[in-house]
Amino acid sequence: MTKPRKYLPTQASNSIWAELKLPNEDHKVRALVRSGFSVELLSNLANIIGFRLISVAHSLGITRSMLARRRKHGCFNREESDRIFCLIKVIERTNDFFEGDQKSVRQWLQTSLPALGQKQPIEMLQTTADTMAVLNLITRLEFGVHS
Question: Which residue ranges does the record assign to the Antitoxin Xre/MbcA/ParS-like toxin-binding domain (predicted)?
Fold first, then answer.
């Protein structure tokens, strides 16, 4: 008779939250957003997804001069950090949808989509409404709803 094995759930090794060294407790992440994400975090995020920092900042509505000021200060303000949080959520969901295929994630983020009014998902991160449209599209794709 074989001995029963203990169930050990697999942990997502490519979790964007873990790669960015962010806490997995919701209240701690919210506190970080309120206090302001570091510029280093956005730089690391850009590296993870294979985009230039200035391109990612631009997609979030952060100008080159504002990025330079934030670098000097060390962190983003609450509103900018909220947009960074939204980008992380979009990347997390896109990464899950493409089962960790980073090339597909990058390609999809830069593809003009009819469901988004011919905009690229990476261009839809400056407002909560636009970000929700991207997240809703991912949900529809996950469930096979034609978009």
Answer: 96-144
H-state helical runs in 50-145: 53-59, 64-73, 78-97, 102-109, 128-142
pLDDT, mean of residues 113-129 = 96
Query: pTM of the entire structure?
Result: 0.88
One-letter amino acid at 91 equals I
Q: How far is it, in rounded angstroms, from Cα 135 to Cα 32?
A: 22
Q: Is the Cβ–Cβ distance between 22 and 29 less than 8 Å? A: yes
For the record, the structure tokens of 116 come out as 């988004």
Calculate mean pLDDT across residues 129-140.
97
And the tokens for 142?
A: 């996950």
Q: Does position 11 have pLDDT exceeding 70, yes or no?
A: no
